[in-house]
Structures are given as C-alpha cells and as structure tokens.
Design brief:
76% of the residues lie in helices and 0% in strands. With 265 residues, the protein is mainly alpha-helical. Helix 2 runs parallel beside helix 9. The relative contact order is 0.14.
C-alpha cells in the first residue's frame, strides 16, 4: 500500500495536468457546436472543398455534422490523441524512472518482491487513468447536455467517451512493455510523442486506403465511431484483440521485470 500511495503521489501533478488538458479541450470543442450546428450547411461546403483523401485521413465526416454525436465523433479524434500520449507517457515512465533516477537498486533491496513492486506501479497508473476519465466523462456529459437542445442517445455518447479509457489502456500496456525492454530511456516524453504520433499517422493512412486489416496495426482504429453511432456497440473482433494485446503486454512485462538484472547506481 505504501508503494502504491508513493507512486500515486509521484504522478499527482502529471495526472492533474493531463486531466485539465482533456477537460479544457472537450469544453472548448463542444462550446463550438451550437455555432457549427446553426451553420451546418456552410460548414459542409467548406469541408467538401478539401481533397477526399485529406477528409478521410482527418476523419472529416460531413453527412451529419449538425448532430452532437457526429460532431463529437469528429472532435474525439484529437481528444483521443491527447489521451493516448498520457497513457503512453505513464506506461513508459513507471518502471524506467527508477533507472533514470538511479533508485532501482535501493527499491529492490526492500523486503518486497518485484511482482509486488510492479503491481503497485501498475495499480497507481490505472488509478491515474480512472481519475482522468471520471473527470473527463463528467465534463463532456455536462457540456453535451448544455449545448445540444435536441434529444440524443446518452448511451452512444458514453460509449464514444469510454473509448478514451480503452485507448489509454492499450498505450499504457505498450509503454510498460517498452519500459521493461528498454529500461535506460533518457527521456520518456519524446518516446511517448514519437510512438503515439507514429500510430496516429498509420491510422490516417489506413483511413485513406480503406483496408480493414490495416486497422489492427494501430489502436486509433480499433474503435470505429461511425459503427458505434449506428450500432450502439463496439466491434467485438477489435475488442478481443485489444484485450488480448493488453493482457499479453502486461504478463510479458511482469516476466521480464522479475527476471531482469538491475545494475547498481
């Protein structure tokens, strides 16, 4: 419990910063909806002026831009990008920071197993993400109800919003496995930004090709917002792969971490 609270305290400021960033972005974006909804036709004409490949890459769907759910689906692409960076940054730092700060040998001399150390760090990271998503969900839900005067499906809105948490879990798992395989990472943020943007670009390219198989290569395409809006559910095949990836990455991280040599500072 002490290790868990210590890790939670260590990431307190970071969690607050990322939470405020996500809440601020969704408030700003959704506050734009009434104006865009009133000028939906003008906005459609503007978007239609962009090349089709660019519209597909950026997820610019103009059919129902005046609908809160369709508008939210569009802006969520950029919200998920911020959330993914948080998840990746958190995962990549929870283990590697002990190497960077040269406290790993001190930590592991304590009467605790490496499994317990990893579990405490993982639970702290999950708690940070849960806190972030709770505040985000509240802010997004309140804003959506304030700016949309027409009835809309709150279930679909919540399903869209929860994809942020699932996406963060995937990048958290990816960050953890990278941190145990490459523990001597000098700076976590450049690694996190580079990895997330690489997957984001792959997702954009996947949109232009329309190849469904390529969607499995990037977490950003595991949740098709159009599918969610139409079916009020997630695509089961992608959820299975996502859960499988997270499980395998976490198990592999435990195995590597418990057997890895820790060099003295």
């Amino acid at each position: 419990m002490n290790m868990f609270l210590h890790e939670l305290k260590a990431y307190r400021k970071s969690t607050i910063t990322w939470t405020l960033a996500l809440v601020s972005v969704v408030i700003v974006f959704l506050s734009m909806f009434p104006a865009i909804s009133r000028e939906a036709e003008v906005f459609k004409e503007l978007i239609m002026g962009f090349p089709e490949a660019l519209r597909m890459a950026l997820g610019l769907s103009v059919e129902n831009i005046g609908s809160i759910l369709e508008f939210y689906s569009y802006i969520f692409l950029y919200i998920s990008l911020i959330g993914a960076i948080q998840g990746m940054n958190l995962g990549a730092s929870i283990v590697s920071k002990e190497i960077r700060e040269k406290t790993a040998d001190f930590l592991l001399t304590k009467p605790v197993t490496r499994t317990k150390v990893m579990t405490s760090k993982l639970l702290a990271a999950l708690t940070c993400l849960v806190i972030t998503n709770i505040f985000y969900l509240v802010a997004a839900s309140v804003m959506a109800n304030l700016v949309e005067t027409k009835a809309f499906s709150m279930k679909i809105f919540l399903l869209l919003s929860l994809t942020l948490f699932f996406l963060q879990l995937m990048f958290l798992a990816l960050g953890i496995i990278i941190s145990v395989v490459i523990p001597k990472t000098k700076s976590v943020l450049p690694l996190s930004l580079g990895t997330v943007f690489a997957f984001f670009i792959v997702g954009a390219l996947t949109s232009t090709t329309g190849d469904q198989a390529l969607r499995y290569l990037t977490p950003f395409k595991y949740f098709d917002f159009s599918y969610i809006v139409k079916n009020s559910s997630y695509e089961s095949s992608f959820m299975i792969v996502a859960i499988g990836f997270i499980t395998i990455a976490i198990i592999a991280s435990y195995l590597i971490y418990t057997k890895r040599d820790i060099h003295s500072a």
